[in-house]
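Recall that a protein's primary structure is simply its ordered list of amino acids. Everything else, from secondary elements to tertiary packing, is in principle encoded there. The following example makes that idea concrete.
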Amino acid sequence: MASADKRSATENEGHLCSIHDFALESSRMNEAIANLEPEAVWRHFAAISAIPRCSKKEENVRDYVIGVARAAGLDYQTDAVGNVVVRRPGAGASSASAPVSLQGHLDMVCEKNMDVEHDFDTDPISLLVDGDWLTADRTTLGADNGIAVAMMLAILESDETPLPPIECIFTVDEETGLTGALQIDPAIVTGRTLINLDTEEEGFFCIGCAGGKNTYGTLPLVWEDAGTGTGMIVRVTGLRGGHSGVEIHQERGNSLVLGSRLLDRILREVPGARVADLRGGDKHNAIPREFQAVLEVPSGDVATVQSVVTAMEADFRDELGDREPHLAAAAERTDRPDRVIAGDGARRVADLLLSLPHGVLGMSHDVPGLVETSTNLAAVRIEDGALSLLTSQRSSRGSLIEWASDVVCAAIRLAGGTPRAAEAYPAWPPRPDSPLLRTAVEVYRRVTGADPEVGAFHAGLECGVINDRVGGMDMISFGPDMTGVHTPDERLNIPSTARTWTLLLELLRAL
């Protein structure tokens, strides 16, 4: 058993027990899911929902996993980046079979609406049941990928037979850069059959996914004291947002795209308007839902700004229709800012935002209906006196990932900014002749009496990255029905979770 924990053995033992006991007590107290089945899955899901686990802050949930492993008497290993592998011996007639790896990530996207009081570093997720759906109180739920973690923990504790030897791989920091998968120590992964549990549509077996990278930008700004005008705040709110891979083809509204159009029109129609602050979006893999800009405008032009925003809200509603039924744009008075962007800086900001692409850039000619290449204008804010940008590019072809990133970099350079592109992560090429897929399809037919859908999708899964590190893996991904992931509207279907659990058990028995 190896560990990268820097605490002493005694301190570590006490910390693990504390986290484990706290989380289990929280799960028992959670009335929302107290009577749901399978009991072990929901008990663990409630427990990890009580543990803050934003990306790069997974220490406590990782310790909870280790606590479960210790309580069950199971071997575990960690690597230098913080991934955990827990091994359960085979049971019954399958005990001598080749090991099967289950995989999911410990972190979650931490998103909330601007008007919600919630500290993701300290507050537990508040779980709510709405009919057949589990959701959270105006924050992300964390079912992506908490339900995978809960199922894996339940498998580790299970006395089901027969089961092959099982290796559960819990990775860190998937949502902000696939850090755990990109840096996983190949020595701690012994299985060569891998089931990833990070897909969000029951009845769909994923056998391939896009690769991608993030591209950043910084635009320096010059500042001066504000004048004697009126402070105004311009907002775009009420958008659905969504996953920038799975839902990019639905052409939902992007608050930064709409906000940049508002800013451009205001600067053109109110020449004296000046910008003091700008922000919107947050995560690279979430389509932005909200935008706000703080302006100083000549006092006589307040009504003009409000008229511009009202007119453009009508345009946005007409353009987006029922894709964005709750879209709202508003302009109201606020305190006059202390400083504003000097010279033509605001114009350069508006021009840069207008020129940055967002959405689908190309469709696959190999898989009908599959998005091949896209880019997400993900986040913008003014900090440390400069404009900071975050964008994300995806494609099933490495050359097109680079092209999409180059387009973004060119726009940033033309505006006088400095671009920076992160290292790309690899795509997962489909393997239709996979023995694991063949077995999974047979089991699905036997369990449900129907055929599953099989295909690839335009989102980044850890499968391709792990295989790139480890090599020689036969892989598949599936999971229960989820909607609204990466947004406060995230929902997990309760009956679908139970059916997916049954499918997972039957597939493991067949392997």
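The mean pLDDT is 93. The longest strand covers residues 371-383.
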